Amino acid sequence: MFENLSERLGGVFERLSRQGALNEADVITALREVRVALLEADVSLAVTRDFIKAVQKKATGQAVTKSVTPGQQVIKIVHDELVAMLQGEGPAERLKIDNPPAPILMVGLQGSGKTTTSGKLARRLKEREGKKVLLASLDTQRPAAMEQLAILATQIGVDSLPIVAGESAVQIAKRAKQQATLGGYDVYILDTAGRLQIDVALMEEVAQVSQIAQPRETLLVVDGLTGQVAVEVAQEFDAKVGITGVVLTRMDGDGRGGAALSMRAVTGKPIRFVGLGEKSEALEVFDAERVAGRILG
Ligand code: GDP
Questions:
Q1: Which of 52, 62, 107, 278 is most buried when burial is the number of CB atoms within 10 A of its CB?
Q2: Measured over all CA atoms, what is the biggest interatomic distance in the chain, rounded to whole angstroms?
Q3: What are 135-183's pLDDT values in tens digits?
Q4: Is the minimum distance from the CB of 114 to ligand 1 under 6 angstroms?
Q5: Which amino acids does the record list as binding GTP (predicted)?
Q6: Does the CB atom of residue 179 touch ligand 1 within 6 A?
């Protein structure tokens, strides 16, 4: 995922480390290359600019240029700023799913990987946290999507809400809540309908469901390969329905990584998980330290 960026930055820092002493001009030259590498990775211009400014401020101080290993110092500063950019201020946040039954609303465009991710999340909560999970598809437009979720549920060994033809999304959300309460579930995951693009009808439906379900978490699923578009989709969903976090899918692909790098800074919302494949176990908690480490090699 971050191969290109990692390679580019590796080259810049290798040159920097080889020099014994550094002056401010060396640092500025290196940061110019870092800037190009970030832009090539599809990180937004504003985020790149802020990032470079923050690193420059810390890296051109006396302490760095006078240090015995100035190149390493600069790399450390870049690492720390990458972590800050990826996760914002606080530490990684956990899902708020205490007080059963906790509703989790999954939203996103069609094809983003929403249904697959609902299954992955259910599996994770069941296996790692021992939660009793109910999956419910609210995709009244596409019976095939409902079937897909039911099949996934069977495969991973969790329950799914029985499909009743003719119900609206809101009716299904109400029934899911009832069943989750009566059945003693810890969590119920509502997989909402997606559209190929954001439209008024989609947002209306998601807003209505959200109103009824009062979700503890509203997770937006976006395709990480779409770069800055993924970030724009997140901004729109957040403005219209409010999201508590993001899941970036297809991070196993060869995208340039810009979505991961810009998401937090632009939307203020944390990336909670990344999807790393089609299988139901291919979901990882997003860990800014690890990602920064991966980028810097
Ligand atoms: P939905 O329309 O948003 O519910 O999307 P789906 O869950 O049906 O996923 C669309 C396609 O993307 C399916 O073929 C999934 O197997 C695939 N997919 C989902 N997540 C990932 C991922 O993290 N990596 C890869 N490579 N494929 C994924």
A1: 107
A2: 72
A3: 999 999 899 999 999 999 999 999 999 999 999 999 999 999 999 999 9
A4: yes
A5: 108-115, 191-195, 249-252
A6: no
Rg, C-alpha atoms of the chain: 22
Describe the strand order of the beta sheet including 283-285 as a list of residue ranges. Answer: 159-160, 133-137, 187-191, 102-108, 217-223, 245-249, 271-275, 283-285
Rounded to an integer, the average pLDDT of 238-253 is 94
Q: Report the residue among 271, 278, 280, 285 best suited for mutation to probe ligand 1: largest number of ligand atoms under 8 A from its CB.
A: 278
Atom 2 (ligand 1): residue with closest C-alpha? 111
Whether residue 195 is annotated as binding a ligand: the answer is: yes
Q: Whose CA is nearest to atom 20 of ligand 1?
A: 113
Distance CA 31, CA 55 (A): 8
The pLDDT value given to residue 92 = 63
Q: Determine if ligand 1 sits within 6 Å of the CB of residue 275.
A: yes
Report which protein residue has its CA nearest ligand 1's atom 9.
113
Residue 263 has pLDDT above 90, yes or no: yes
Query: What whole-number distance in Å separates Cα of residue 221 and Cα of residue 62?
Result: 44
Q: How many residues does the chain have?
A: 297
Q: Is the ipTM of this complex over 0.95?
A: yes
